[in-house]
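Sample entry (190 residues):
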Amino acid sequence: MLRIALVPFFVWFLLADAPGLDAQNGAWRWAAVVVFAVAIYTDKLDGDIARSRGLITDFGKIADPIADKLLIGSALVMLSLLGELPWWVTVLILVREWGVTALRFFVIRYGVIPASRGGKLKTVVQTAAIFLYVMPLASIAPWLGFLAFAVMMAALAITVWTGAEYVVEALKLRASGIRAKKQQVQEGTP
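Predicted structure, serialized as tokens:
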């Protein structure tokens, strides 16, 4: 929940640094970097605590990806608004992210699709790419802009690949749920 609460601050700091959407790369930009880093750390901390205490819940399986999508999505939209990231990258990633979320809700009556290893890798690579973009170091060393773009392209490839994997997983979950329901009806069990 803290990650979700930090999103408006992150967005506001990026906007405060960019009057007229012209990034200044000043103190507000660095504040956005810090808020993004804290938000990402809460994701790791939350996961570590949940696993160590055996508190992995269906709520967490749903809420955690949503919090990730809010943070990552707001970062992508802001970077595109600031002209630092092409809109087509943002659109492709957001379509996949929200599509997978919708897919999870569509098949929830058959079971929960937890984050896969590929999904976790996608989040790590997206986070690294966004962190490189948000940090105002490209104005000092232009090659960091190329590095940020290369990491973002890797994140995009993983994002599309894992999106396809989630579709396959959802179809399997739905099919097994339908088979189980038919079997219950045949056995006369409600």
